[in-house]
Structures are given as C-alpha cells and as structure tokens.
Amino acid sequence: MTAPDPAADAAAPAPAIVLGIETSFDETAAAVNSGPTDDLSSVVSSQVDLHARYGGVVPEIASRAHVELLTPVVAQAVVEAGLSNHDVEAVAATAGPGLIGALLVGVSAAKSLALVWDVPFVAVNHLEAHLYSSFLEEPDLDLPVVVLLVSGGHTLLVLMEEFGRYRLIGQTLDDAAGEAFDKVARFMDLGYPGGPIIDRLAMDGDPQAVAFPRPMRDQGYDFSFSGLKTAVVNHVRNNPGLDAADVAASFQEAVVDVLIHKARKAAETHRAKGLCLAGGVAANSSLRERMLDVCTAAGISGFLPSRAMCTDNAAMVAAAGWQRLQLDGPSPLDAGADPNLALPFLAGAEPAV
Ligand code: KG4
Ligand code: ZN
Predict the structure, then answer these.
(1) Atom of ligand 1 at shortest range from CA of 154
(2) Which ligand has the nearest atom to the CA of 151?
(3) Ligand 1 pocket check: which of 44, 103, 148, 151 to mutate, most ligand atoms within 8 Å of Cβ?
(4) Alpha helices in the chain (DSSP H)
(5) Is the pTM of this model over 0.85?
(6) Are 319 and 132 in contact (CB under 8 A)?
(7) pLDDT tens profile 91-127
C-alpha cells in the first residue's frame, strides 16, 4: 500500500464532497457532506436489537454486524445524496476512540474505497466529530463555545476556540453520564440502551421523589457518576416498593442537575459566546429542556443539535473529516485505528476573567 504524499495532496484544491463512515460502537453509519456543514445524506443502521438481549454491546457481534451492514449503508448514503461513487472526493472514517474490531471495519473500508476511487482518506477522532455536530445545523455559531459532550464513554466540558483548538475544562473521574444511565437501567431490568428508556420512563415519574446525591456539583468542573449509580442501587434495594418511574425521574434529575450546573458555570467563567450539547445523552429530554431554560436565564446562547446528530452518526464524521483535511491534509493509508484515541487539548483552560 503506498501512502499518498500529504504535502502534494494538501496543495490540491479542497475536496468538497466527503463520504463519512462511523463504526466505532454499535451504529453502522455513512453520510455524504458537501463542505463542512451541508449534509446531503445521513444513514444510520442501529444494531440495538442485536445487543439488547445481552444487556450491552458485545464487541464481536458489533464487528460482524458492521461488516455485513457497512456496504449497503454506504451505497444508500451515496444514492440518498443524489450522487454516484465517482462524485465522492474524500473518504473520512472514525479511527477512535471505540471498540477496536468495530473501528477496524470502518477504517479498512474507508481506506479501500479511497484507494479504489483514488481520493484522499482522512482519519477522524470520534470525540472531535461529536464536538463538531452543533456546527452541522448551526454553521454560523460564534466561537468560542463551551461544549458539554456527554456520551456512553465520555463526559467532557470543552472550550472550543476554533476547529482543532480545544481546551479541556472538566471530565468525568469515573463513569460517563451515558454509562450511568445504562448501568442504572440494567440494574432496574429496564432494557438496553438505558438512556432513552429512562428518559421515557421518567416522563411519568416525580423528579423530586428521591433526593439522590449530586456528586461534586459544587466542586470544580470534573464529574463523578459512579457514586450516584451506587446510591440508586442501594436505595432501590432498601425500598423495593418504589415506583420505577419515580426512581428514573429522580436519578435523571440528579444527573441533569450536575451537568447543567457545571456547563453553565463553565460558559460564564470562560465568557463563551454559546453553550452546545453533544453526544448521545444530549438527546435526553430533561437535559435539553433544562439547558434551554438555563441559557435563557443566564443570557447565554444555547444550541441543541437535533437528536439524530447527538447520537452516533456519520454526518458529524464527514464534517470533522472535511475540517481535518483543510488543517492537516489526508491521513496516510498506514494510519491505524486506536481504541483509546485522545483529543489533542491545548494546555490549560484558564477563566477569561
Ligand atoms: O454518543 P453515543 O451515541 O455513543 C457513544 O459515543 O458513546 O451515546 C450513547 C449513550 C448511551 O449511553 C445511551 O444510553 C445514551 O447515550 N443516550 C441517552 C439518551 N439517548 C441516548 N441518555 C439519556 N437520555 C437519552 N434520551
Ligand atoms: Zn459517540
């Protein structure tokens, strides 16, 4: 395999039509974007039904399902964009973080397509793609913004100064917010994935029914959800007659309370021009509602990507891929997948006061 010469490719006219591929976890997704924000198609094939009976994602099943689903999903994305394969000018794929087997399916497919179509390949960081999801629907967002990225594997508060320039404000010290939703749902035998199930159940419950702890709410910008999850487990064990909807609503209220409190404080302290949500948990109804209320009250402009852009999708991968191509040029074809790929943060996130 010959790696393209990044210097030569960087000098070529910027590709506009980017095919994005996302296979980091349990969604097989492909999308075609024109430029950084115009998504022409976005196809997501969820594997939820395959994993539900195991109560969580089984890595081997995920990899095999990606192999089966990816070719038709890519074909559908190209057709729905009203294009044909030869219109694609670059192929971007999530290279990490995620499940290694699952990532390799997407990265290998993307490199093969790039070779066959003779277009650049670009490796994308899944977290950077989530950070960028707000801009897909709101291209004119003023920077800097604070992004609260809450997914199954990550809980991050990030100051986004511009594309590729991020400062870490806070992160979880143990469980991610989505992980806490999934674990509580599993303990309560509610099904998988727990986030959307708890979200629906909580609508019939009283969020004040149980005063669950708000871990680290008033201490800095880091998060900790493991103790809250244990508090829910202990409370349910000690009070077996409790209404499940009340438990779900009270647990959700505690998570949302901590997330919103810190996100608002971060946006104010860093004088951000806006506050954005990203990641699967950003699809949560209560989080979305509270975020808008808090932004209105504090005079901060808040932005909520549509639910489809919060959960894993490939439009955000194509968009981040387009940006990465402008900044770095194509990725070499021997670039691998990395299950622990980190976001490159700039040093320190000092308050702008
Ligand atoms: O971003 P995402 O689709 O995948 C990862 O990169 O992790 O996030 C998945 C996480 C899961 O933990 C899922 O339970 C959670 O997002 N989630 C939700 C909701 N929808 C998805 N959590 C709370 N409320 C929801 N409506
Ligand atoms: Zn994700």
Answers:
(1) 7
(2) 1
(3) 151
(4) 6-11, 48-52, 59-80, 100-117, 126-137, 177-187, 194-202, 226-238, 244-269, 285-298, 307-310, 315-328
(5) yes
(6) yes
(7) 999 999 999 999 999 999 999 999 999 999 999 999 9
